[in-house]
C-alpha cells in the first residue's frame, strides 16, 4: 500500500489538479479579447470605419459639430488613429447617419457624401479624401423640409449603390424622410456623373431599410423598402399612405412603383424584408408583416415581383409579443440556407421558403441581431446580436453553436449603440462597440486552449509524474552514489592505511631504535622515538578523515624523511622550501604527499648507491598552490626493473584525487616529469601537484 501511495502517478495527481485549477478552462472554441476601451474623440459623434483608399485597412471617419463654430464637421483618422484631415460644412447635422462612403466614379478611392441642413434646406457635399483631397461638390441642395414648430426633423438613410442607367458608374439611392416634419418622405437617386438628383413621389411611408435585387432579369436591380408606423401622418392630412400603418413598397430604376404598397395595419407595426437564397441558388424576397393591431406576424416569400411563393401567419398573445424577437436574418445553418424566424427565451426558430421549421436552443440569450460579418477572416460569417437588458453582445457562428458573450454595458436600454468591424489587411480584424461616447475594440479568434486543454492537462500530468519519477530516480542515484563513495572511502582508507607504514620501514625504525639504545646513543634514539610517535599519533587521530591541512601533511612527510635518513645512514639529504604566502591551512588529501615521498624513496633513491637527495617545495601559482617533489634517483625507467607491482602507487594517487574532487575538494592535477641530463641519462624524477 505504501509503495502504491509513493508511486509517481499517484503523487502527481493532486499537484496536477492544483495546476489545472489555475489554468483557463474555455467552454467555447472562440474568444473575444478586449484590445482598447476609450472615449470617442468627439462627443455625440457618428463613427464609421471604411477603407477609403482601398489599401485593405479601414480609416476612422467621425461626424460631429465643431465646438468652435458649432457647425457640422467630418474628421478622418488613419488606421493607426492619427489625424488625417477635417472638412467643415456650413450647416448642421440632423439624426445619424450623417454621411455615406461610396466609390461612384470607380477610381479606386471612395468619396464621402455628407448631408447637413441649414434653415429648412438639406444639402449634400461630396469630397474624396484620398489621394488628392478632391471636392467634387462643395454644396448641392437635396430638398427642402417642412418646418414644424419652427424647426425641421429629418434623416437620410438606407443607402445602396447600383448602376441603374448602365453607364458603367454606380448611382446612389437613399431615403430622405421627415420625422415630425412629416415631409418629404421619398426615395432619392443621385448621379455623380450628371450631378443630378431624382426624387420619387413623396408619401407618408416611414422607410426603415432597403433590399435591392434584379427579379425581372433586365440587369438593373429593383429596390424594395420596409417601413415602420410611428404615427405622425394621419389619413386626415391627405398624404398618400399614412404612417399609422407599415408598408411594403418597391421601385424600379426610374423610381416608379412596381406594385401598390402592401399595408400592415396598426401603429408601431413594421414591415421588415431581407433577401433569401435557398440551397438551389434561387433568390426570394422574404417579408415580415408584424401587426400590432392583432399581434400577428405574417412571413411571405416572393419569388418574383408581386408573386407569392409561400406565406404563413404566426399568432401571439400580448406577453409572447413582448418577449419575441423576429429578426428574419438569413444564415447558413450547418450547410443549409434558412432564416432566423423568431427568438423566444433562448430558443431560435429557423425556417426555409417552404416553412420547414426547426428549433435550436442556444446557451446565451440572443437579442437584436445587428449584422453578419467575418470577424476572424476564416471565410465563415459570425452573427452579432445585442441583448439590451443584460448589456451583452453575443457572437456566434451561423450554426448557432459555440457562442461567446461580451459584456458591453449593463442595461443599455434606450442608449445609442453602434456595432461594427474595423478591417485590417495584415492584422486581425477588430469588433467595435460604441455605447453613447464609450468605444470598445475586441479581437475575435479561435481559442487554442479549447482544443488543447485536455491534451494539455494530460501533458501536465505526464510532466508532473515525470518530475516525481526523476526525483525518485535521482534520490536512488544519490543514495547509490553515496554508497559507492562510502565503499570507496572505506576501501581507500584500508589501502591508505596499508600504505601509511611500510612494514620494512617500521622494522627499520624499531631496529634503529634498538641499535641506538644498545650503543648508548640515547639522544638519537629519543629523537627517533619522538618522530615515530608523532607519526603514529597523526595516523590514529586522523584515522576517520580523508583530508588534513597542508601543514599537517608537510609535517608528516618531514618526520618520515628524518626516520628514513637514519635508515640510509645519513646518505639521504632532503630540504623543504615553502613560500611564506602559501596557505598552510588549505585542505589536502591525507597521505597524498607522503605517498609521493615514499614512492620516490622506494623506486628512485633506494637503488641509488650514493648522494641520495630530495627537494620538496611549495609556492603559489595564481590562486592555487604548486607542490613539487623532486629527487635525483635512478628514474622511472630504471626503477621498473626492480619493481614487482608497477602502477599501484599511481592508481592509488588517482583514486585519492578523484575522491577528493567528488567530495567537493576542488580540482587537483598530478603531473610526473622524468629528468635527464644533456646526454640523455636519467637524473631523477619530479612530481607536480597543483591544487
Strand tally is 39
> Unreliable segments (pLDDT under 50, ≥5 consecutive)?
497-501
Q: Indicate the proportion of strand residues.
A: 35-45%
* Helical stretch tally: 10
What percent of the residues sit in helical stretches (DSSP H or I)?
Answer: 10-25%
* Radius of gyration from CA coordinates: 51 Å
3D shape: rod-shaped
Q: How does the major sheet shape up?
A: 8 strands, antiparallel
Structural class by sheet pairing and helices: alpha+beta
Give average pLDDT, whole number: 85
End-to-end Cα distance: 51 Å
What attributes does this structure have?
rod-shaped; 39% strand; 10 helices; alpha+beta; five-stranded mixed β-sheet; 691 residues; eight-stranded antiparallel β-sheet
Description:
By secondary structure, the protein is an alpha+beta fold. 24% of the residues lie in helices and 39% in strands. The chain contains ten helices and 39 strands. The strands form nine sheets. Strands 14, 15, 16, 17, 18, 19, 20 and 21 form an eight-stranded antiparallel sheet that branches. α5 (503-518) runs antiparallel to α6 (522-541) and α8 runs antiparallel to α10 (648-662).
Amino acid at each position: 500500500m505504501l509503495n502504491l501511495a509513493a508511486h509517481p502517478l499517484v503523487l502527481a495527481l493532486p499537484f496536477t489538479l492544483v495546476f489545472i485549477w489555475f489554468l483557463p478552462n474555455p467552454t467555447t472554441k472562440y474568444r473575444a479579447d478586449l484590445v482598447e476601451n476609450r472615449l470617442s474623440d468627439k462627443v455625440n459623434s457618428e463613427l464609421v470605419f471604411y477603407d477609403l483608399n482601398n489599401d485593405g485597412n479601414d480609416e476612422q471617419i467621425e461626424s460631429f459639430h465643431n465646438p468652435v463654430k458649432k457647425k457640422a464637421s467630418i474628421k478622418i483618422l488613419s488606421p493607426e488613429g492619427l489625424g488625417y484631415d477635417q472638412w467643415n460644412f456650413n450647416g448642421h447635422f440632423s439624426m445619424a447617419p450623417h454621411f455615406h462612403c461610396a466609390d461612384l466614379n470607380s477610381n479606386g478611392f471612395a468619396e464621402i457624401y455628407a448631408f447637413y441642413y441649414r434653415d429648412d434646406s438639406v444639402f449634400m457635399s461630396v469630397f474624396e479624401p484620398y489621394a488628392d483631397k478632391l471636392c467634387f461638390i462643395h454644396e448641392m441642395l437635396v430638398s427642402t423640409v417642412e418646418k414644424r414648430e419652427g424647426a425641421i426633423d429629418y434623416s437620410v438613410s438606407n443607402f445602396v449603390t447600383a448602376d441603374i442607367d448602365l453607364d458603367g458608374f454606380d448611382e446612389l439611392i437613399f431615403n430622405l424622410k421627415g420625422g415630425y416634419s412629416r415631409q418629404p418622405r421619398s426615395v432619392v437617386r443621385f448621379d455623380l456623373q450628371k450631378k443630378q438628383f431624382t426624387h420619387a413621389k413623396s408619401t407618408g411611408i416611414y422607410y426603415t431599410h432597403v433590399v435591392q435585387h434584379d427579379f425581372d432579369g433586365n440587369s438593373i436591380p429593383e429596390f424594395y423598402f420596409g417601413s415602420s408606423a410611428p404615427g405622425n401622418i394621419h389619413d386626415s392630412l391627405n398624404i398618400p399612405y399614412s404612417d399609422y400603418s407599415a408598408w411594403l413598397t418597391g421601385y424600379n430604376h426610374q423610381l416608379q412603383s412596381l406594385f401598390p404598397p402592401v399595408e400592415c395595419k396598426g401603429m408601431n407595426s413594421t414591415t421588415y424584408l431581407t433577401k433569401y437564397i435557398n440551397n438551389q441558388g434561387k433568390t426570394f424576397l422574404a417579408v415580415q408583416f408584424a401587426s400590432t393591431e392583432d399581434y400577428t406576424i405574417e412571413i411571405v416569400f416572393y419569388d418574383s415581383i408581386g408573386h407569392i411563393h409561400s406565406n404563413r401567419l404566426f399568432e401571439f398573445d400580448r406577453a409572447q409579443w413582448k418577449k419575441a424577437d423576429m429578426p428574419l436574418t438569413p444564415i447558413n445553418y450547418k450547410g443549409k440556407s434558412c432564416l432566423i424566424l423568431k427568438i423566444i427565451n433562448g430558443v431560435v426558430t429557423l425556417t426555409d421558403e417552404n416553412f420547414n421549421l426547426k428549433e435550436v436552443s442556444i446557451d446565451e440569450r440572443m437579442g437584436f441581431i445587428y449584422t453578419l460579418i467575418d470577424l476572424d477572416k476564416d471565410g465563415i460569417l459570425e452573427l452579432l446580436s445585442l441583448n439590451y437588458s443584460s448589456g451583452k453582445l453575443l457572437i456566434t457562428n451561423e450554426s448557432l453553436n459555440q457562442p461567446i458573450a461580451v459584456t458591453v454595458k449593463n442595461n443599455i436600454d434606450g442608449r445609442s449603440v453602434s456595432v461594427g468591424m474595423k478591417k485590417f489587411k495584415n492584422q486581425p480584424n477588430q469588433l467595435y462597440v460604441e455605447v453613447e461616447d464609450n468605444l470598445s475594440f475586441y479581437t475575435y479568434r479561435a481559442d487554442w486552449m479549447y482544443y488543447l486543454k485536455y491534451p494539455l492537462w494530460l501533458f501536465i500530468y505526464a510532466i508532473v509524474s515525470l518530475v516525481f519519477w526523476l526525483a525518485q530516480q535521482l534520490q536512488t542515484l544519490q543514495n547509490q552514489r553515496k554508497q559507492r563513495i562510502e565503499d570507496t572511502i572505506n576501501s581507500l582508507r584500508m589501502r591508505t592505511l596499508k600504505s601509511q607504514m611500510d612494514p620494512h620501514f617500521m622494522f627499520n625504525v624499531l631496529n634503529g631504535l634498538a641499535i641506538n639504545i644498545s650503543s648508548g646513543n640515547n639522544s638519537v634514539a629519543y629523537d627517533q622515538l619522538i618522530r615515530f610517535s608523532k607519526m603514529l599519533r597523526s595516523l590514529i587521530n586522523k584515522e576517520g578523515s580523508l583530508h588534513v591541512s597542508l601543514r599537517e601533511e608537510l609535517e608528516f612527510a618531514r618526520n618520515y624523511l628524518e626516520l628514513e635518513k637514519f635508515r640510509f645512514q645519513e646518505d639521504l639529504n632532503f630540504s623543504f622550501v615553502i613560500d611564506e604566502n602559501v596557505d598552510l591551512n588549505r585542505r589536502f588529501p591525507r597521505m597524498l604527499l607522503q605517498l609521493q615521498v615514499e614512492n620516490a624513496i622506494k623506486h628512485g633513491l633506494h637503488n641509488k648507491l650514493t648522494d641520495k637527495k630530495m627537494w620538496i617545495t611549495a609556492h603559489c601559482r595564481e590562486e592555487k598552490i604548486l607542490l613539487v617533489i623532486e629527487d635525483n634517483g635512478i628514474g622511472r625507467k630504471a626503477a621498473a626493473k626492480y619493481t614487482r607491482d608497477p602502477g599501484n602507487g599511481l592508481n592509488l594517487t588517482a583514486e585519492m584525487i578523484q575522491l577528493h574532487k567528488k567530495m567537493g575538494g576542488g580540482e587537483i592535477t598530478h603531473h610526473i616529469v622524468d629528468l635527464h641530463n644533456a646526454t640523455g641519462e636519467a637524473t631523477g624524477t619530479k612530481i607536480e601537484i597543483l591544487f
